[in-house]
Structures
1.
Amino acid sequence: MTSIKTKNAVIHFNKEVYVELNKYIKATKPSNIFVLVDTNTHEDCLPSFLAELKSGEIIVEVMEMPEGEDHKTIDICTGVWEALSDYNADRKSLMINLGGGVVTDLGGFVASTYMRGIDYINIPTSLLAMVDASVGGKTGVDLGTLKNQIGVISEASMVLIDTAFLDTLPPQQMVSGYAEMLKHGLIYDKNYWETLLNFEKLTLSDLDDLIYDSVVIKNKVVTEDPGEQGLRKILNFGHTLGHAIESYFLGNADKTPLLHGEAIAIGMILEAYLSNKTTGLPDSELKAITDGILKTFNKVDISLNDQKFIFNLLKHDKKNSHGIVKFVLLEAIGKPKIDCQVENDLITEAFEYYNSQN
């Protein structure tokens, strides 16, 4: 696969990733290398990665964090910063983030702020991180249950996508990443969306090509608007309500936490309904989106009481300005519209629509 150039870096795929990584290390000669993993990737991914890494005389230190979104916190960052300091990391050190979106988001933030910034490389191991989290330079951590409230935009030196790591994922994690791929189709390319609808029939070769296409879509959007002043906002389709739902389920002890993609899938149906009522998304496309998503994602019970808390979380969405909640909606599949305002009564209707689905 042809490597993809971003504004400041390059994304490499499969056979090329370790060749390019070792060339980079040989050329840049980092003072030392730090590999951040979580408890899962330490066991499932680190051995095969280290077998490919050619560091020569450069010392390689492995740092492990707990797995899961609830550990994407400043406290964990502090532990990693302290570990870097204890191991005498300097401004010529290199950090490699080997993991899913939590590892690449948090590791990128740590690297971007340690000594005002050291080089880092993302090696995403989950489908979600491959198509979304590790591409585009958004780094950060959660503030309590509020998603990604603390962070900076800072691109990795390289992103290395080796789809062999997908063999280590449970099915639920694969489905979570699939949601972001569906989003890329809905906001950018109707043909891509329709190709994805037969997810369960796709071969590994098909998936490789679709991952590549998803990265191309995201990179085009990010390259045109790196600071999220306009076009890049379209990547938030499904995320205004989806993030609020994810935060609510994560912070409520009576609820089973949702994976990111599971919450975004709900958000996309809700925001498709809002689109149908406000920006002209045709009835047929609302039905296609609803049916297409529920074909793979299980319905989740969201009561009126749940909705009250979710509404309250909307005010923390990062797209808001001057206290106004702003949505990305669709005029048609592949035709998004940014900075849309919606009445609360219509959001309640959207939840009623979602809950009414079989």
Note: The chain has 14 helices and eleven strands.
2.
Amino acid sequence: MPETTRESLTSGGWKTLPFEPFREDVTIHWIQPFENDQPGVALLKYEAGASVPRHLHMGLETIVVLEGTQSDEAGDYGPGSLVVNRQGTEHSVWSDTGCVVLIQWDRPVKILQEETV
């Protein structure tokens, strides 16, 4: 059995997991935090209208959309979508409807421009 297991994520199993603040209107459930040069793995829950400002990928980022729609400048990604962002790419992310994604980062991203109010 794996060291860390989360069951039934694609059928709503994430709904019973504890989430904590990550960014404004975005919460996180860490499955594997970044430590000792190990990749980070987490669930991110975006409220409707939430966004993450333009950022640079310092390593590979892989996302699976579990619920709702996540968007970036290249398009909209619904449930079951796989999004792979290579090292050196940049984009911003938002969700008009709200969404939950499973995300794996090789390295933390670098925020390029904070949102202004």
Note: The mean pLDDT is 92.
3.
Amino acid sequence: MLIKKLEEKNYSDSEWLLKEMLLNIGNVNSYIRDKLIYNAFIGMITKDYLTNDQLKNLFNQLLSNQYLLYGIGFKNSDSVYKRSFSALVLGLLINKDKEQQLLEKSQISFVLDRACFYLVNEQDRRGFTEEKGWAHSIAHCADLLDEIITHPLFEQSMYEKVVEALIFCVNSPFVYEDDEIERLSTPSAALINRYGISQEFIDKIESLINHVLSKKTYSHLDTRIISNIRNYLRAMYFKVDLEEHKQL
């Protein structure tokens, strides 16, 4: 019944649909998860099928340990799909709130804390999985961070927390193959576009580069990190004009 309603884009019984969609948000069937449920969330959120109370309740549920942080710390587990797509839908809700203004400053701060915790503690960094489609945990959480940073209630005091999480991901020996570095560069550029580039941000980038350059020989892991850093800086360069943004 759920699949039929979603294929027909019949969103009239929104309360029942939300319950069933949440139960299946991390469904391992990529057609159900990506094509039906996620697209239904897009339609229901952006086209005002949900009441303000439903939007708030959905936001709170997705932030719980049963969704955004469900099973975090495991590798190669199906739990990644639930975490990753919870992050995507949270991004939709925060984007919608830029016009609705239902959320409070404390809620934006809380979702930021959760997103940064997610990036630092996510162990399953797979992008596309052959049998089950997109896991894309790092990319989806980076998208969520971008929505948070561009929300009116995001404050400059939250700046360094975001930088810590982003640099942690870049400074990883994991081989990102599915646009993750590009996606991590987007919230980084959003920070600079909104508040300029801080001295702390510059120091962290310089520390990454100097650590690599100081080595006389490079291991395979070092080579991966160098590639991540190079691609991250290149992607940011084309998203911001640093001359227009003074240091904090």
Note: Residues 129 and 162 are 28 Å apart (CA to CA).
